[in-house]
Every structure is written in structure tokens, then in C-alpha cells.
Specification:
Strand order of the largest sheet: 7-8-9-6-10
Number of strands: 56
Number of helices: 35
Radius of gyration: 37 Å
Shape: globular
Largest sheet: 5 strands, parallel
Helix content: 25-40%
Distance between the termini: 62 Å
């Protein structure tokens, strides 16, 4: 291939030479032509093949002489060992022409990494023939078989036979000199993938496109072989073992071959039908992603089977000869094609789950079947963090496959937060880092199963996350070539996750294995371990130890518990010379516990050890021990085994009667101590600018973000205190005065500092959860300490402050001191407590609420929202709209998932993709949606994939809902029918006919025996699901029934109608129990609270109303939506309401107080226009209430209310001197007002000249523009503007965030450091940012 100019490729060849092309793409990323440099490792792997001899100079390989173009194309040199400084090697070069290299080189750049190869640093093995003995290892034998397969393909490509033979030569020697056998396994996997690729192309008659690729691949391998063969052929293996110099050459060749395999895989996986230009772009993108370091962020130490921590010392697998049957069964499961793809090994503490998991990993690793492993443990923060499981798995999969790595890096490029350990959206993370990359590459790699081993998930802190992950795995394994082995104790959340989908997994109960099999394995373990303990170094006296009787008793005590045996062995070994005495103690313990609990054996062991530890100590010495163990039980300090904390906190198992020296710890007391210590530490350590960031980076700026580099400035102790003080506080039963005092100091002095710290750590969502938890705790504790009530109010106020400004603070920690404090209400407790900080923030001089609005979160959708619903646990909200279905985080308002199947599939068919109704299944794992294109779809809520499409309706589907058990779906349609579907089979179980017009709404009763439906025919019907008969027909509405639902107990039905009323019916008699009147337009949606005491309704009048279901009175009228409210729902606890509207927003309302926001004084309808006077001292506003108002921009007071227009005022402006105001209206007039006298002049001519020489010109009916006599003064020249997304006021020196609550302004104006906004509610807001400067 010839080159024309720098980095340009000739189009002589019909297909791109992938290896040279990748090299060129890397070269072209350099900023400017490089001076002559030394040959790089990349060139060894990528150039075409004319051999020359070169020498090593200054520790780098010197290049052959090259042409001018080639010099420009060289890159950074490849470092080699100083031991090789005199070695001549045989590189691969492009041309025999020469030029002397420059000494100006950059040894830091490693070009190997640019194409995803292994590091080029040569690890020199230990000298000596012991390395030679490794020849013939398991890894080598496996590679030999694979190379035979590669040779078998030589009938298609003859050069492969020679290449395979050459590879075997290098690999045999590399196996002898390399200390890292994983490299051999990696190469084996890569060669297997290459064989698969070749066979795939053969199957589809695409072999011709591989000709030149395989030829170049084989030639490159030949050059590496030749480099090795130039060494002395005689006794090569022995010489290599003794020569670090030759070993380096061999390992370098070996690793070059590994790189070549990567390049070959990536190249042949490209779409060969693309144009040369498209392939060029694709290879460039791939090479960049293979070079990306972003994948390293997914790696976390101590989590895999090779790096995990164990309290026993170095983690080991099962002792040879033990657990034989179990391991054989697991091996068969892993290798089989027909077995379930998820295997759950469940067992009580101490039965040896982790040891079995470790051994399984070793077995799979040897067979190249291990995809990834994660070993949970309470021993460290990382191993107890369930949110790290997905990143760790993704990292391991990326290391195993260049193709998968490319896809994962691409996902991280699209959303960098995916790689962060604090990423909270588990569904999206699993989908983008595991599910999608595997699905995308499944057709490009060998389709044998890889096994993912996840051990001890019960030891992760958040079992809710574990449960969600298990459900994700169960629902996703259909479509990806992965199997999952999961080991845990039998925890409720874990069990329920598996039992919700019992047909998708295999369950094996380890503690139910036949007793004689377990006892035989434990016997082998104890006998071999005691034999190791009996050492001549400890006791040179030979005797028959252990005594058979003691061994027998120890076996009896161990029963089926490996943990008992392991703990006993450790206790005996740690006694050193007292090992015989300790064995006797353990074989003959005092029988203090008569418990028949399943745990009695291990309890006796732990109790005995604690009694021995306390035997020679005074009570005063035992107290610190108890405190220490309290910390171990609750904090990330490693206990010996998870069963110990369970024992030490159970007063039944560790009773004072059985163990008087060390009775059970009271869990709440330990939590109280830790909460106290956390708060004390935060009070000592938290401060403004905790990371000492330069002052210029603390300013409020739209583009400002937190830096990950700053996390290291926060100590582990402070990090723990910030994250977990509230979780410890939540467990306190009776608070001491000290705890309340330090909490008071924390909330009154360091709340803002704490929020700053959480933002830096990427844990801001923990802040919201902590404040919510603390509010509940303080409400409970106020009975014992009156101060708790005041603190509860402050904590809840703090939560609202954080929630309102979450998005800005999450991005930049210093916004808690700037923008966030500007928008909190006048009566906010945070505003009063932190008055000094508030004084430095921007100030709202007009329009600030006095108290918190009932609206907690406003979530902006892209189109009108038709349907909303809470998940059962209240953590998520689903909304269905004109263009998509979205799952939202109900705490932060962030998008968790977008379900786009309706839009994508329906628009392809030219259909309207509007989603009319959505609902969660009870366990939150599925979503059902109904659309205007006659279909019902069931979605996987975790992955966003469509699981089922239910077809049968002949008109638009208006309403859908799951039955309580998730097994059925009911739907209503404009085709006048109600249908009940089997959610698993998608079959129609019943079609209910009887309505005379379209069905608008349907719902199941809690027990699933009945369905209620509301229709355009103005009736409500209750159906028997079993018989399909109508049990009751409820008549009374005078307009169509738009929404219905049962009360939780099934005794009542509530309905909302276009007749503007809400009715509550007796579900048995059909009689109306109450008629709720108040809405001024059609009622669109109604629902009962869980306790049946309240009803919430949404209406065309744009309001949400909460009614007392017993008295029919309105408890609250929630205003804020700018268009029809289509859907409403209560959270499970009744504290919140969610609403969706045609204004394209979803709002979450706090309804616990029942207070209605006081009306702000001002306009009573939309503010259509606002404008500053030229000196910035006043604001004029025009409204749809037909009035014009003039405001003092400093005090916010109304200076004048100008009435006279008979239609909405569309535009307003001041004259230049501010003595006149001009207004244009829909009443077709333009009016000029004298600000001083209030007199008004109605324009009847085309133009009017004002006293200050300003000219007003009519510009149509009710429209005008002003021409000023001189250029506007500096003060009217705005230095502020609005960002494109409408969320930031952008200034020259500082910016200011606008919360969602204030983003829906209808008009705006700016004057130097002031901004004015008008709203549809009639509110006018004036913000002064100068006070923050």
C-alpha cells in the first residue's frame, strides 16, 4: 500500500488493510509531524513485512532506515529491558530505504495500548531451569489443542498450517519462561475466537474477504517466529531458562502475537460490505476505544476470586477430595446447554458456600469458561457494595474480549457516569455495561457460555439492590450467552427475588446435602489440618495425636458446618504450643446451651471462645471489648464470619444465662454509639471548601463540575461518617441527650458543609435518603426529648432545600452555598439558620414563596403526559406520554429508564405512538402499557425490553393494569370491551362485553376476583373475573366515566367523570355513598389512598384535589400545572401524590401537611410580558388579567396597578426616562400611561412622540414598538441571559441555577445584574445576583 501525504490512504485496494489502517489512525492523532523516532512495538505488530536487523540504543529498539513518509509515520519507541541493550532482533519494516533515527524520543507513550494489546514491558523471569519445568503445563496443553484446530483450517487457508506450527514453537518456550500463565489462557481464548470467525465466514461464503487479512496475519506471525529462531537453536529451552536476555525476546514476540490476534478479531468483525471510507472511520473509532482507559474505572480490588480477602488467610478452595459430588454437579450445569442459566446455591452461615464458589471459579478458569467473579464480604466497603457487582463483571468481560470492550467503552463515552461507583440506576448500568455489549457482540464471538460467579451477596449492605440485580439477571439471561452462579444465605429479599421467577433458575440448598457426605468432607478437612498443625517445630515429641475420641467429638460438634470446623482449627492453630490443650477444650466444651436451634452448634463454639477471652479479665476490661465488637457488627470492619455478628446480637442465642461473661449486644445501643461518633467526627472535620479548591473554581458557573481528583482529600473516617450517620440513627430506640446535642450542632453548623462533602463524593442521593430517614426517627424520638420535634422540622426543611436544587448541587458542590439558598422560601428554617450564607447568595426581591410549595419535584417530559403511577415501594414513577414511557427516580426526579418500543415500532408502521396508560407490576420488575394503536405491551422494567405484546383489541387501548400477583393484565379499549390476559402466555383469558361505548378505565380488585370498568356510556360496571358476568352496573354520572378504581379492601369504587364530579360507590349494592363536587371542568383521574380515607383527583381545570372520603370535603387543592391534569396516583404511604399533565410535566406533591400554598399578591392570570425601566429600578408587567402593574425592583412592592384594558395585555415597555409605560392588548388598543398621574392615552394614530422624545409606533392590532431618542444607557444593557436549556441565568462574573419550580416562566427581562420573570400563575419574580458578587 502506498502513502500519499501524511496519514492519507490510497484507495488502490478494494478493502482496507486493517492492521496498517489502525496504525495510520493512531499516527494521525498526533498534533503535528514528528521528528525521526525509534521503531515502536505497534510497528512490529502492524507494518508489512520486509525484515531488517536493528540494534538496541539507549534502552529502545532503533529502527531501520526509512523513507521520509515512513519517518513521519513512526511513533513512540518500545521500551525494552536494559538487559537487552546489546541484543539484535528481527523487526518488521515497510521499506529497505534508510535514515538515521533522532535521539529525541518520548518513552512515555505506549503505542501498544492504542490497539488494546498487552503492556510491552517485559517481565524478566527468575533465572534457572525451574522455569523450564513448566513446559507441558495445563495452559500449554490447552493451547496445543486450539492450535490443532487452527491447523485444521489450513484446507481453507494453507498459510494457517505454517502459522500454527510457528505459534506452537513460541508458545512452548513462552510457557517455560513466563510467570504469568493467564497470558497463555488469554491467547488461547483469542485463537479460539479467530477459529470461530474463520468458520463463520466459511458458512456464509465470505472467505474471499479474509484472504489478504489471513495472509498478513500469518506473515506477521512468521516474523515473530523468525525473531525467536535467530537465537541459538541448540538446547534452546535450557538456554532460555538461564538467559533473561533471550527470555525477554521470546516474551516480546509472544505478546506481539497476542496483539496481532486482537487486531485480527476486531478487523474481521467489521461489516465487510461497508465502503472503504466507512471502514476507515469504524477502525479509527475502534482503535480509540481499545486504547481507552475509562474501562479501568470499572475495576475494583479485592472483589474477584483471585484478589478476594479472607479472614482465614489466603483464600483457598475446597481441600482436594472434598465436595466432589457438588463440584461435579456444578461443572455439569456450567457445561450443559439445556440447564437453567441461573444457579442459586443457598445455605446457612458456615456451610462452605464461599469455598465452593472459589473452587468453581478455579475449575471454570482452567476451562476458559469463567466470565467474571465477585465475592461479597462485610470485610470492606467495596466488597459489601452491591453497586460494584455490575462494573466488576463488565470489566472482566471487557478484558476477555476486544469486541465487548469496544461496546462497553462506547457506552461509557455516551454516559461517563456509568463507570462511577456511585451510579444509582442499576437497570441502565446493567443494560449498558453487560446486556447490550453482550447482545451486540453475541453474533461475533463464540457462543459458548461464560459463567459469572457471584458469591456471598447476602453480605452486601443494600439487599434491595441485590434483589433488583437478581431480578435483572433472571429476566435478561434469555438473550445473552452468560450463565450466573449466585451463592448466598437464605435472606428474605434474595429468596423473594428468585421465587418471583421460579422457573428461570435452579436452586440448590447446601445445608440439606446428605449428612454423611458433608461429615466425610469435614473429617478429611479436620484430619489434614490437624496433621499440619502437629509440627516438630511446635512439639518435637512424637505421639498419637489427635486422640481418636477427641477427633470424633470434634466431628460431632462440627456437624454439617464447615465454619465450625474452620473456626476450631484456627483457634487450635493460634494456640501454638497449646494446640493440644485447645483441641481438648473444643472437644469437651461446657454444655451451657440447651438450644435446639439450627445454629446451636456454632453458637456453642462462639460462646466458648468469648468465655475463654473474658475468663482472666476484669469487667472494666470487658467493656472496651464489647464496644469494639459493636463497631465490628455495624461498621466495615471484618468479622471472622458473617455468622458471628448474627450470634452476638441475638439475646436468645447469646443469652446471659449461657454466657454471663459476655451476654448479647443490644443492637440499638451499638448504633447509638456509632451515630454519636459519626456526628462528633463530622462536627470536628467538616468545613467550607473541604478539599481546598482554588477560589476561582468555587464560583457558581453553569459549566462547573466536581473533580474526581478531590475525593482523595476526604478521609475514610469522614466519608463513612457522612454516608452512614443516618442509618445508625435510624436504629436508635431511645436517644441520649448527648446524641441530640451533637445532632443539633451538626444541623445548625455543618449541614451545608455535609451537602458539599456528599456532592464531592458523588453520594448526594444518600443525602436525601439520610434526611428522609432522620425525619422519621426524630418524629419517633420526640416523645422522649422535646428538642427532637424542632430538629425534625429543620431536617425536613433541609430535605426540601436539597430536593429542589438536587440537579445543580450534584453537578457542582458549591451550588449549595450559592444558587440553592436563593430560591428557598422566606420562612424556610434553613434560610434563618444559615442567614450569613444566605446573605452572600443571589436574592429574590419579588416573587419568593413564603413557605414550601406542595410541589416537591417537577420532572420535565418531552410531550404531554397521559398516565402516571408509583411503584409499590414508592421509589419509582412511571409515566406514559404522547411519544414515550419513562421511569423516574421518585426521590431525585432523574430519569431511570425510557421504554421506547411503542414509538419505534409503531412509527415504523406509520401509526400514532401515543401511550394512553401505564402501570407497574407489584414487585416493580415489569411495566404494562396500552397505546392508541390497539396493543398492550409488557416490558422488563430493568432492561427496557418488550417481553410480550398482547394483541386482540380492535381499537385504541385506553387503560391497563396488572393483577396483584402479576399473573394477569386487564385492559379497556374503545372497542367497548374489557380483556383479561395471561401475562406469561399473552393469551386472552376473558373478553368482557356489555358496555355500549368505549371503555376508558379498568382496575382489578385486590384479590383479583373482580374487575371494574368505566365507559363513555356513563356507567361503571363490576365484573366477576371467573364467570365474566356483570355483578353490578353503577349509574348516576351524566357524562362519560373517565377513571375508576377499587378501594384497597374492595368495598368501594371511586369514579371520575366528565360531568365534573367524583363519586364513591358501594361496590356490593351499587349505591352512591358520596358525590364530591368542586372541580370546574372534567375529571380525568381518581384513586383511593391505601387506607381508603382519601381520594385524589385530577381535572381539566389544571388542578389536583385531595378529598376526605368520609366527609367529602376538599383537604387540599394543588395548583401548578399549566394544562389538563390527565393522571394522578398516591404513594403507598399516602404522603405523596404524583400527577401527569398535558403541560409535559410530571409533578410530585407533598401532601402530609394538608396546607395549601398561600396565593402570592399580584396578577391573577398569566403574565404575558415584563420589562425593566432603563435605570433598572422598576419593572412593568402585563397580564392576561387585563392589568398592567409597576413594581419596585429593589423592594418588590407594587407601585401602581393600571386598569383599563378589556383584553389580555400582550406587551409592555417603559419610555426612556421612565415617566411613561406603553402597553398593547388583545382588546386591539395600544395605551400610553403616565406613571406619575395614572392618566392614560389610547393611541389613535400610527405613531406618538413622548415628552422625552421616545417614539411609539403601532405595529398592527394591539401591537407596538418604541424608538428611543438615544442609545440605551449602560444600565439597561443586560449582562445576564438565559441558557439554552432554560435552567441557568448566565452572567459575566457568576451564574445562577433556576430550579424546575421556577423554570416555567412565560416572559423575561434583564437589566444589568437583575432578572425578571413572569409566570402563568400571575407571579412576577425579580432576582438580583449582584449581592453574590
Amino acid at each position: 500500500m502506498s502513502h500519499s501525504g501524511r496519514g492519507k490512504q490510497s484507495k488502490r485496494s478494494a478493502l482496507l488493510d486493517p492492521i496498517q489502517d489502525i496504525y495510520n489512525r493512531i499516527r494521525n492523532r498526533l498534533p503535528s509531524p514528528q521528528p525521526p523516532q525509534l521503531v515502536t512495538g505497534t510497528e512490529l505488530a502492524t507494518k508489512s513485512f520486509t525484515r531488517q536487523t536493528v540494534t538496541v540504543q539507549n534502552g529502545f529498539i532503533a529502527p531501520p532506515k526509512m523513507s521520509g513518509d515512513e519517518v513521519a509515520n513512526t511513533n513512540t519507541p518500545l521500551p525494552v529491558s536494559q538487559a537487552n541493550c546489546s541484543t539484535s532482533v528481527t523487526p518488521i519494516t515497510k521499506s529497505p530505504t534508510s535514515r538515521e533515527p533522532s535521539e529525541n524520543v518520548n518513552p512515555q507513550y505506549n503505542a501498544y495500548a492504542a490497539i488494546g494489546g498487552l503492556p510491552t514491558t517485559v517481565v524478566i523471569p527468575e533465572p534457572g531451569v525451574q522455569r523450564a519445568k513448566a513446559v507441558g503445563s495445563v495452559a500449554y496443553e490447552g493451547l496445543k489443542l486450539v492450535l490443532q484446530g487452527l491447523s485444521d483450517c489450513s484446507g481453507m487457508f494453507p498459510p494457517l498450517k505454517t502459522a500454527a506450527g510457528g505459534l506452537l514453537t513460541i508458545i512452548k518456550i513462552a510457557d517455560a519462561v513466563s510467570a504469568n500463565k493467564e497470558e497463555l489462557e488469554d491467547l488461547k481464548a483469542k485463537l479460539e475466537a479467530i477459529i470461530s470467525i474463520i468458520k463463520k465466514y466459511q458458512k456464509y461464503n465470505g472467505l474471499r474477504v479474509l484472504d489478504h487479512r489471513i495472509e498478513d496475519f500469518c506473515n506477521a506471525i512468521a516474523d515473530q517466529v523468525n525473531a525467536v529462531e535467530k537465537l541459538d537453536d541448540s538446547s534452546l529451552l535450557t538456554r532460555v531458562a538461564e538467559s533473561t536476555k533471550d527470555a525477554g525476546t521470546i516474551l516480546k514476540a509472544f505478546r506481539n502475537i497476542s496483539i496481532l490476534c486482537d487486531v485480527f478479531q476486531v478487523d474481521t468483525q467489521l461489516n465487510i460490505e461497508e465502503t472503504v471510507e466507512n471502514i476507515d472511520d469504524t477502525v479509527k473509532s475502534i482503535s480509540q476505544r481499545l486504547n481507552s482507559g475509562s474501562i479501568d474505572k470499572l475495576n475494583h480490588e479485592m472483589t474477584s476470586h483471585k484478589t478476594r480477602h479472607s479472614s482465614y488467610g489466603d483464600p483457598v478452595g475446597c481441600m482436594p477430595g472434598t465436595r466432589v459430588n457438588i463440584l461435579a454437579d456444578l461443572d455439569a450445569w456450567a457445561s450443559g446447554d439445556d440447564s437453567h442459566k441461573v444457579y442459586w446455591m443457598v445455605g446457612m452461615a458456615g456451610t462452605g458456600k464461599s469455598t465452593i464458589s472459589h473452587t468453581l471459579c478455579e475449575i471454570l478458569d482452567r476451562k476458559n469458561m469463567l466470565g467474571a467473579s465477585f465475592f461479597g464480604s462485610r470485610a470492606s466497603e467495596k466488597t459489601s457494595n452491591a453497586r460494584l457487582i455490575v462494573p466488576v463483571i463488565a470489566h472482566a468481560l471487557a478484558r476477555a474480549s476486544p469486541s465487548i470492550k469496544v461496546e462497553i467503552v462506547k457506552a461509557i463515552e455516551d454516559d461517563p457516569a456509568l463507570a462511577e461507583p456511585t451510579y444509582s440506576n442499576l437497570n441502565e448500568q446493567f443494560k449498558k455495561l453487560i446486556y447490550n455489549p453482550i447482545r451486540t457482540t453475541a453474533g461475533k464471538v463464540a457462543k459458548t457460555y461464560k459463567i459469572i460467579v457471584i458469591d456471598a451477596v447476602d453480605e452486601c449492605v443494600n439487599l434491595g439492590v441485590v434483589s433488583s440485580l437478581i431480578k435483572l439477571i433472571l429476566q435478561s439471561t434469555f438473550d445473552i450467552p452468560l450463565k450466573f452462579f449466585i451463592a448466598s444465605r437464605d435472606e428474605d429479599l434474595i429468596r423473594s427475588a428468585f421465587y418471583d421467577l421460579p422457573k428461570l433458575s435452579t436452586t440448590f440448598k447446601l445445608h440439606e446435602v446428605e449428612k454423611h457426605l458433608v461429615e466425610d468432607d469435614i473429617r478429611k478437612y479436620i484430619e489434614r489440618s490437624l496433621s499440619d498443625i502437629k509440627s516438630p517445630g511446635l512439639d518435637p515429641t512424637p505421639d498419637a495425636w489427635p486422640a481418636p475420641s477427641e477427633l470424633s467429638k470434634l466431628l460431632d460438634h462440627s456437624g454439617r458446618l464447615f465454619i465450625y470446623a474452620a473456626t476450631t482449627i484456627r483457634y487450635i492453630r493460634d494456640g501454638r504450643k497449646l494446640y493440644k490443650y485447645r483441641l481438648s477444650l473444643m472437644a469437651n466444651p461446657d454444655s451451657k446451651t440447651g438450644s435446639k436451634l439450627q445454629t446451636s452448634t456454632i453458637d456453642g463454639l462462639y460462646g466458648h471462645i468469648l468465655e475463654q477471652a473474658c475468663a482472666s479479665r476484669e469487667d472494666s476490661e470487658v467493656i472496651p471489648m464489647r464496644r469494639l465488637i459493636s463497631i465490628i457488627e455495624h461498621a466495615p470492619v471484618a468479622p471472622f464470619h458473617a455468622s458471628f455478628p448474627d450470634f452476638i446480637t441475638d439475646s436468645t442465642r447469646c443469652s446471659p444465662k449461657s454466657y454471663p461473661s459476655f451476654p448479647a449486644l443490644v443492637s440499638s445501643e451499638g448504633h447509638e454509639m456509632l451515630a454519636l461518633k459519626c456526628l462528633e467526627h463530622m462536627n470536628r472535620s467538616l468545613k467550607y471548601n473541604i478539599c481546598n479548591i482554588p477560589e476561582e473554581l468555587t464560583l457558581s458557573r453553569r459549566e462547573a463540575t466536581n473533580s474526581l481528583d478531590n475525593i482523595g482529600e476526604i478521609s475514610e473516617a469522614l466519608k463513612y461518617s457522612c454516608l452512614y450517620w443516618a442509618s445508625h440513627l435510624a436504629e436508635v430506640q431511645i436517644s441520649g441527650s448527648d446524641l441530640v446535642t451533637v445532632l443539633f450542632v451538626f444541623l445548625h453548623t455543618h449541614f451545608l458543609h455535609w451537602i458539599e462533602c456528599l456532592s464531592v463524593l458523588g453520594e448526594l442521593q444518600t443525602g436525601l435518603k439520610s434526611l428522609e430517614s432522620a425525619t422519621a426517627v426524630l418524629s419517633r424520638l420526640q416523645m422522649t426529648d422535646i428538642r427532637c420535634h424542632e430538629l425534625q422540622l429543620l431536617v425536613d426543611d433541609a430535605r426540601r432545600c436539597l430536593q429542589m436544587n438536587f440537579e445543580s448541587i450534584q453537578k457542582h458542590c458549591f451550588e449549595i452555598y450559592h444558587s440553592a439558598l436563593a430560591w428557598i422560601p422566606n420562612e424556610s428554617l434553613i434560610r434563618k439558620v444559615y442567614a450569613t450564607d444566605v446573605s452572600r447568595a443571589p436574592k429574590l426581591t419579588l416573587g419568593l414563596s413564603n413557605s414550601w410549595d406542595p410541589t416537591e419535584i417537577v420532572m420535565q417530559n418531552s410531550s404531554g403526559v397521559n398516565s402516571v403511577a408509583f411503584s409499590q415501594d414508592g421509589s419509582r414513577i412511571i409515566s406514559g406520554s404522547d411519544d414515550e414511557t419513562v421511569i423516574w427516580n421518585a426521590t431525585t426526579g432523574e430519569v431511570q429508564a425510557e421504554l421506547k418500543g411503542h414509538r419505534v415500532q409503531d412509527e415504523l408502521q406509520g401509526l400514532r405512538a401515543e401511550v394512553a396508560s401505564v402501570a407497574f407490576s407489584r414487585d416493580g420488575s415489569q411495566v404494562v402499557s396500552g397505546s392508541y394503536v390497539k396493543t398492550v405491551r409488557i416490558w422488563n422494567a430493568m432492561t427496557g425490553e418488550v417481553q410480550a405484546e398482547l394483541k386482540g383489541h380492535t381499537a385504541r387501548v385506553t387503560s391497563v393494569v396488572f393483577s396483584l400477583d402479576g399473573g394477569r393484565v386487564v385492559s379497556g379499549s374503545y372497542d367497548k370491551t374489557v380483556r383479561i390476559w395471561n401475562a406469561m402466555t399473552s393469551e386472552v383469558q376473558a373478553e368482557l362485553k356489555g358496555h355500549m361505548d368505549g371503555v376508558n378505565s379498568v382496575a382489578f380488585s385486590q384479590d383479583g376476583s373482580r374487575v371494574v370498568s368505566g365507559s363513555y356510556d356513563a356507567t361503571v360496571r363490576i365484573w366477576n373475573v371467573t364467570t365474566g358476568e356483570v355483578q353490578a352496573e353503577l349509574k348516576g354520572h351524566t357524562g362519560l366515566v373517565n377513571s375508576i378504581t377499587f378501594s384497597y379492601d374492595g368495598s368501594r369504587v371511586v369514579s371520575g367523570s366528565y360531568d365534573k364530579t367524583v363519586r364513591i360507590w358501594n361496590a356490593m349494592t351499587g349505591e352512591v355513598q358520596a358525590e364530591l363536587k368542586g372541580h370546574t371542568a372534567r375529571v380525568t383521574s381518581v384513586v383511593f389512598s391505601l387506607d381508603g380515607g382519601r381520594v385524589v383527583s385530577g381535572s381539566y381545570d389544571k388542578t389536583v384535589r385531595i378529598w376526605n372520603a368520609m366527609t367529602s370535603e376538599v383537604q387540599a387543592e394543588l395548583k401548578g400545572h399549566m394544562d389538563v391534569v390527565n393522571s394522578v396516583a398516591f404513594s403507598q404511604d399516602g404522603s405523596r401524590v404524583v400527577s401527569g399533565s398535558y403541560d409535559a410535566t410530571v409533578r410530585i406533591w407533598n401532601v402530609t401537611t394538608g396546607e395549601v400554598q398561600a396565593e402570592l399578591k399580584g396578577h391573577t392570570s398569566w403574565v404575558m410580558s415584563v420589562a425593566f425601566s432603563q435605570d433598572g429600578s422598576r419593572v412593568v408587567s402585563g397580564s392576561a388579567d387585563d392589568t398592567v402593574r409597576i413594581w419596585n425592583a429593589t423592594t418588590g412592592e407594587v407601585q401602581a396597578e393600571l386598569k383599563g384594558h378589556t383584553g389580555l395585555v400582550r406587551s409592555v415597555a417603559f419610555s426612556q426616562d421612565g415617566s411613561r409605560v406603553v402597553s398593547g392588548s388583545y382588546d386591539e388598543t395600544v395605551r400610553i400611561w403616565n406613571v406619575t398621574t395614572g392618566e392614560v392615552h389610547v393611541m389613535t394614530t400610527l405613531s406618538v412622540k413622548l415628552p422625552d422624545s421616545s417614539e411609539v409606533h403601532r405595529a398592527g392590532t394591539g401591537k407596538f414598538f418604541i424608538v428611543y431618542p438615544v442609545q440605551p444607557m449602560l444600565s439597561i444593557d443586560p449582562t445576564l441571559s438565559i441558557s439554552d436549556d432554560g435552567h441557568w441565568i448566565v452572567g459575566a462574573l457568576r451564574d445562577c441555577w433556576i430550579p424546575s419550580h421556577y423554570c416555567d416562566f412565560t416572559s423575561s427581562s434583564f437589566s444589568r445584574d437583575r432578572a425578571c420573570f413572569g409566570y402563568s400563575s400571575g407571579r412576577v419574580v425579580i432576582l438580583d445576583v449582584s449581592v453574590a458578587l
